[in-house]
From TrEMBL:
Source organism of this protein record: Gynuella sunshinyii YC6258
A GO term for molecular function: phosphoribosylanthranilate isomerase activity
Biological pathway: Amino-acid biosynthesis; L-tryptophan biosynthesis; L-tryptophan from chorismate: step 4/5
Protein's UniProt name: Indole-3-glycerol phosphate synthase
Catalytic activity: 1-(2-carboxyphenylamino)-1-deoxy-D-ribulose 5-phosphate + H(+) = (1S,2R)-1-C-(indol-3-yl)glycerol 3-phosphate + CO2 + H2O
UniProt keyword annotations, A-Z: Amino-acid biosynthesis, Aromatic amino acid biosynthesis, Decarboxylase, Lyase, Tryptophan biosynthesis
Family annotation (Pfam families): IGPS (PF00218)
Alphabetical list of InterPro entries matching this protein: Aldolase_TIM, Indole-3-glycerol_P_synth, Indole-3-glycerol_P_synth_dom, Indole-3-GlycerolPSynthase_CS, RibuloseP-bd_barrel
Name of the gene: trpC
Family as reported in the entry's similarity comment: Belongs to the TrpC family.
GO term, biological process aspect, one: L-tryptophan biosynthetic process
EC number of this enzyme: 4.1.1.48
Domain Indole-3-glycerol phosphate synthase stretches: 8-263
Length: 269
């Protein structure tokens, strides 16, 4: 029987094509030459540590116009305005989707959002090749996402080391025990537990609750996807999960920043 590719496989196939095309336009050497024109990374992990030390939830507020599972999330989409509203509402960091084909994102959105705030920004994309790590740094990203499900062990180690060498932080994302076992030897400070199964799109917050017991004390857990209510936030905080990556709930609100304040009551913690 022919294997039916999941959306994740389609995304990764398309990524390799995109990388090939971009390399023809601009080389790694040229990307490196751009580093001097972008501000040094802002300290993504440091900002999260600071929020947690102050007893606040560290909210990584996402800017995404669309997603494969939900289609268009927000018709009126202005990354600069959204970024400003998140910063005013007390977000700790920003997450900007740069994938164009499946999320209607863009590299310019990252540049624009970062330029109008002081917040550290993660480039939310599907990173599979060193070229994209250089590109992320040249864009001004403060952190990159590495999704364990789409990387073999060697690539995971190499991409993680390269990002750190270039001064960026890394959010290593897992969804199950097997992926977590592969992620732990990296000794990364930040581990994201994605509550969304990227093959089926099923979302369950139990994913975070179930994996928590397998994490060392010194790891900061970021719970990702499917956070919509006060109860969702409270259940995580009750288990000492204080870092949240939230997209859809904010993107569907008239005012994303107001929704952030309402969901996290940041002034009151
Ligand atoms: O969201 C999708 O449909 C999706 C499909 C395939 C790969 C990744 C996908 N999403 C990335 C994310 O996990 C979310 O953007 C992020 O965690 C925020 O989730 P949410 O708050 O549920 O928008």
């Amino acid at each position: 029987m022919t294997e039916i590719p999941t959306i994740l496989k389609k995304i990764i196939d398309k990524k390799w094509q995109e990388i090939e095309e971009r390399q023809e336009t601009i080389s790694i050497k040229q990307l490196e030459e751009r580093f001097s024109n972008v501000e040094s990374p802002r300290g993504f992990v440091r900002a999260i540590e600071k929020s947690i030390a102050q007893g606040r939830s560290a909210v990584i507020a996402e800017i995404k116009k669309a997603s494969p599972s939900k289609g268009i999330l927000r018709e009126s989409f202005d990354p600069e305005q959204i970024a400003i509203s998140y910063e005013q509402a007390g977000a700790t960091c920003l997450s900007v989707l740069t994938d164009k084909d499946f999320f209607m994102g863009g590299n310019d959105y990252l540049r624009e959002a970062r330029a109008v705030t002081k917040l550290p920004v993660i480039r939310k994309d599907f990173i599979v090749d060193p070229y994209q790590v250089y590109e992320s740094r040249a864009l001004g990203a403060d952190c990159i996402l590495l999704i364990v499900a789409v990387l073999d062990d060697e690539s995971l180690v190499n991409l993680n080391s390269l990002a750190h060498e270039l001064g960026m932080d890394v959010l290593v994302e897992v969804h199950d025990q097997q992926e977590l076992t592969r992620a732990l030897p990296l000794n990364n400070r930040l581990i994201g537990i994605n509550n969304r199964n990227l093959h089926t799109f099923d979302v369950s917050l139990d994913t975070t609750h179930q994996l928590l017991g397998s994490l060392p004390q010194d790891v900061i857990v970021v719970t990702e996807s499917g956070i919509h209510t006060h109860q969702d936030v409270a259940a995580m905080r009750a288990h000492h999960v204080n870092s949240f990556l939230v997209g859809e709930a904010f993107m569907k609100a008239d005012n994303p920043g107001e929704k952030l304040s309402e969901l996290f009551s940041l002034g009151e913690q």
